[in-house]
Every structure is written in C-alpha cells, then in structure tokens.
C-alpha cells in the first residue's frame, strides 16, 4: 500500500538562498587563498564567511535541525580559519605544552561542532520524532 500523505516541504526564501550562495563564494575564496598562500585575501575572507554563517544560523534558529547543522558550520569555519592562520604565521608546527602543535588547537571548534550535531542526533531529533514524526527534517 502506497503512502498518500504528502511529504513536508522545506522551502528557502530567495533572499536567504542568495546569501547562502554568496557564503559559498566567500568560503571558496578563503580556502583558495589558503591553498595559494595569499595571506591578505585569505584572512580578509574570514570575516564575511564567518559572519554569513552566523546570519544563516540565526535565520534558521526556529528549525532545530537546520540550526544544529548551521552552528556546526560556524564552528567548522572557525576551526578552518584558525588552522589557516596558524599556517600563514608559521605557528602550526610549534609545540604547545610539549603535547600538541598550534594547528591542533583547531580541534576545539571542530569538537564543538561535533558536539552540537551529537546533541541534535542523540537528544533533540529523537524527541522531535516522538512528538511529530511526519514533520521532522531528515538528512
């Protein structure tokens, strides 16, 4: 028997989509600059890339799934930007406390992003499914 219940639709307003597309441009410019060791451009792209990621997270705050994933992106960009700076200014291989290098500190925001997603998938999503299984955003 076929399910006749229509699948929920997730629509993005055009203005939100435009800023998301602009975000991708800034992010790529930042990472290409990192790859090519264009310090000034790479560092200057951190602010718009991170700012737009925060704006996107704020705009999607009413959708728990979107908020979790967008916060993870904010932490990812933060970690990625720190790592880029550590390489640009050559403290990426400097030992800190004899245990880790400068670039390894990027694990802090990477871990925060993973924790946000772990909370969403292990705590929040199961609660949503229990309440309204047909209205939960999925992967």
Automatic annotation (TrEMBL):
Protein's UniProt name: Uncharacterized protein
Highest taxon listed in the record's lineage: Bacteria
Residue ranges of the TM segments: 36-58, 67-85, 105-123
UniProt keyword terms in alphabetical order: Membrane, Transmembrane, Transmembrane helix
């Amino acid at each position: 028997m076929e399910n006749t219940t229509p699948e929920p639709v997730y629509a993005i307003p055009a203005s939100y989509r435009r800023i998301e597309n602009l975000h991708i441009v800034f992010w790529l410019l930042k990472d290409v600059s990192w790859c090519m060791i264009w310090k000034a451009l790479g560092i200057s792209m951190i602010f718009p890339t991170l700012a737009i990621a925060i704006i996107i997270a704020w705009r999607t705050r009413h959708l728990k799934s979107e908020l979790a994933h967008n916060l993870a992106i904010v932490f990812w960009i933060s970690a990625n930007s720190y790592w880029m700076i550590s390489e640009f200014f050559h403290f990426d291989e400097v030992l800190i406390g004899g245990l880790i290098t400068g670039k390894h500190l990027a694990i802090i925001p990477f871990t925060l992003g993973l924790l946000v997603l772990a909370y969403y998938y292990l705590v929040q999503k199961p609660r949503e499914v229990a309440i309204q299984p047909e209205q939960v955003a999925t992967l």
